[in-house]
Amino acid sequence: MSQSVQQSSTQSRVLVLLYSISAYLAFLAVFMFFIGWSVGIILPWTIDGPALWFQTPTPFAAVAVNTGLIVLFGLQHSIMARQSFKSMLTRVVPQAAERATFVWISNLMLAMIIVCWQPLPGAIWHAEGMLYAIVLAVNLAGWLILVSSTFMVDHFDFIGLRQAWNNLRRRTPEPPAFVTAFAYRFVRHPMMTGLIIGLWVVPIMSWGHLVLSVALSAYILVGTRFEEQDLIKTFGEQYRQYRARVPMLFPRPGSSVSATSKQTGITGTQTQR
């Protein structure tokens, strides 16, 4: 290989890494903004308004717009998670940038929800005083569960940085291995468990927030079913036994698996996305 070709190859690998880093930084910004916006803390803009871009004339139209935003978000995640779409995408972008591309588009979809969301004021419940502090603490714990669950497997693979780093170093990525570590011993999808807590255990539940919670919870239930079909195709009977023993979202007595009963590596849940 000539020196110019080698230099060009190295530059392209560096660009993929920079692209992945930008996707990660954007994710951190949008995700943190979403938490503050949805819970109604720190930020001057909240889910209960006023609308950041445009205002619908009626509550019915507001519900339709908000539901449509969640449907688009769910479709993007579900379609881009399919292996057929990944194969098509990698004809356009490098293999090492596939996950970062997923993250970038997810960032844009989540930002669109925030910008286009139509407020529906009127509180279903509104915690105050000490109860407010307790509910807020549980809510933040839910978001912490979501984030920490990515580190229980491979946070940097989940976010696309490891793929770009391996590509820069010309390392072949390891094949996925099935593992049940930490929270994955007790529930199959702890990230979704954390998200449900973050969506439902809120100090102020407005009608607008109820639409967000119901719509995203519906997506979680539907999306995880499709994801698990992919996991069964990848891990076969091993995942079927895991699914039979361990509940999907909330632990129950006697349903955990041994921490040493599986191989070490990246979980199927995280790898399949």
TrEMBL record:
Identification of the protein by name: Isoprenylcysteine carboxylmethyltransferase family protein
Keyword Disulfide bond: no
Renumbered residue ranges of the record's region Disordered: 253-273
Compositionally skewed regions (Polar residues) per UniProt: 255-273
Main subcellular location: membrane
UniProt cross-references to Pfam families, sorted A to Z: PEMT (PF04191)
Similarity field: Belongs to the nurim family.
Residues annotated as transmembrane: 21-47, 59-79, 100-120, 132-153, 195-222
Organism placement in taxonomy: Bacteria, Pseudomonadati, Pseudomonadota, Gammaproteobacteria, Pseudomonadales
